[in-house]
Amino acid sequence: MITKEYIKELKSNGSGAVAKAVAEYKDSKTILFILENLGYLPNNYDGALFIDLMRKDNPKIRFWAVKNIGKLKNPTYLPVLSAFLMKEKNTNVKREIVSSIGRMKTSNSKEILFKSLNDSDPKIVCQAIRALLHFKNEKNISNKLKELINHENEMVKAVIKKDFFANEKTEKPKLPHKETYDYLKNIVVNGEVTEILKNVENNSIHLTFTSPPYYNARDYSIYPSYKAYLKFLSKVFKETYRVTKTGRFLIVNSSPIIIPRISRSHSSKRYPIPFDIHADLVKNGWEFIDDIIWKKPEASVKNRVGGFLQHRKPLAYKPNAITEYLMVYRKETTKLLDWNMKQYDTKIINNSKVADGFETSNVWKIDPTFDKVHSAVFPVELCKRVVQYYSYENDLIFDPFAGSGTLGRTAKALKRQFFLTEQNERYFEYMKSKARIIANPIFKERKTKFLTLNEFKLTIKQ
To answer: What does the pLDDT look like over 442-452, one tens digit per residue?
Structure first.
């Protein structure tokens, strides 16, 4: 049986020893194991073995043969790689050929890389771009690459935007990334959210987690039409985008909603809220990251399957809706997550690390919470996971539809700051009453303030 240690020994004896082992074993599985575990190869390593293996029928062997040639970064192999690229049909192998050509960083590769920009596979185009970026200071290459900002594929456009156009619309924040304004810390404002957000500076909020009011399903969420409802949410999340810091997250909890039929001669109507708001969020700059399923016990939801249980007639099946969606978005940026993390000092990073026992899948089994005042409240466990997974200590957490204020209380308990808005005066007063009852020792120096819109405006001016 071939081991990694044996391969290491073969490699130390030169390419001839490796070639001999490949010829001896012959079967594809063993050849692949050898190729995958060769590791670092010096530039003067003889790549003849890999050239021979590139003629194999097995595309995985061809892929790893090319990958090992790429490690050599030797322009000597450019002609043979170019010839194979013209004949290769497997897209994974083609991508690796273009990548290996790019590693050579030789001017002689430009022509074949230019041809690869016209490939139908966007990943091959991106590999060619990556290789040509080595020569981006040459005007003709720079101009050629800039033209790809109009490419049909979004991946290609994103690469070009990052390398050539990212700095054109960059706004310099007024505060360091980890900081926010004092007038937003531990504040609850009673008013219409878009009117409130007009008074909030750009780049103020680290994380937004919210559950929008369900369309015409509650007494506090009546809209003239579904179109008007979606338009309102679009306005809210567009403003939220503006006030969110670079590369930070928006998480929207929603689910399809049923509007009951008005009589037995009419049908009920089901609206796919999370799917209808998604396209608008992306259009306004939010980058989709993940979908998390919040799964509830079946006994906790309204029974829709009862009628079908009796008659079992096809077409009438309606399953019990035990899930909601947490759609995770990130404010579009060319900066990687590493950049966001590096804005914090070591103490904050260590204090914010998520403890063992965190959820590893995108299905979260959490019991719902029921409240005598608010009919759709966040469970504390749901808020706790979101706050811990998507923010650091002292970050500002925002909920534009605060309801009973669970997110604010959870954020405070986890040593974060919060900013909540709520239009319904009854829920606003309910949050005030809870704040008086619940004595929370955290942030004693910054007590929660409950303000009207006008009072909020005055605090900003102070």
So the answer is: 444 468 999 99
**400-423 as b/e: b if 16+ CB within 10 A:** bbbbbbbbbbbbbbbbbbbbbbbb
Establish whether domains 4-169 and 182-461 are of one fold.
no
User: Is the separation of the CB atoms in 102 and 109 below 8 Å?
Assistant: yes
For 380-399, how does the pLDDT look when each residue is reduced to its tens digit (9 = 90+)?
999 999 999 999 999 999 99
- Burial-class residue 26 by CB neighbours within 10 Å (0-12, 13-18, 19+): exposed
Give the phi and the psi of residue 235 in degrees, each rounded to 5.
-65, -45
Beta partners for 254?
A: 325
Which residue is it, tokens 């290491």? 8
Domain 182-461: which CATH number of 3.40.50.150, 3.30.559.30, 3.40.190.10, 3.40.50.720? 3.40.50.150
Place of tokens 């994103």: 158
- CA-based angle 74:76:78, to the nearest 5? 90
> Coil, strand, or helix at residue 10?
helix
Q: Would you state the pLDDT for residue 307? A: 87
CA–CA separation, 144 vs 148, rounded Å? 7
* Torsion on CA atoms 416, 422, 427, 432, rounded to nearest 10: 50
Question: Which is it for the CA torsion 362, 364, 365, 370, positive or negative?
Answer: negative
Domain at 4-169, CATH homologous superfamily? Leucine-rich Repeat Variant (1.25.10.10)
What's at 51, amino acid-wise? Answer: I
Residues 280 and 235: their CA atoms lie apart, in Å, by 10
Tokens of 103: 């590693």
Which pair of structure tokens corresponds to residue 273? 């809220």
- Which residues in the chain show pLDDT less than 70? 167-171, 216-221, 260, 371-376, 436-446, 462
> pTM score, two decimals?
0.83
How far is the C-alpha of 460 from the C-alpha of 207, rounded, in Å? 21
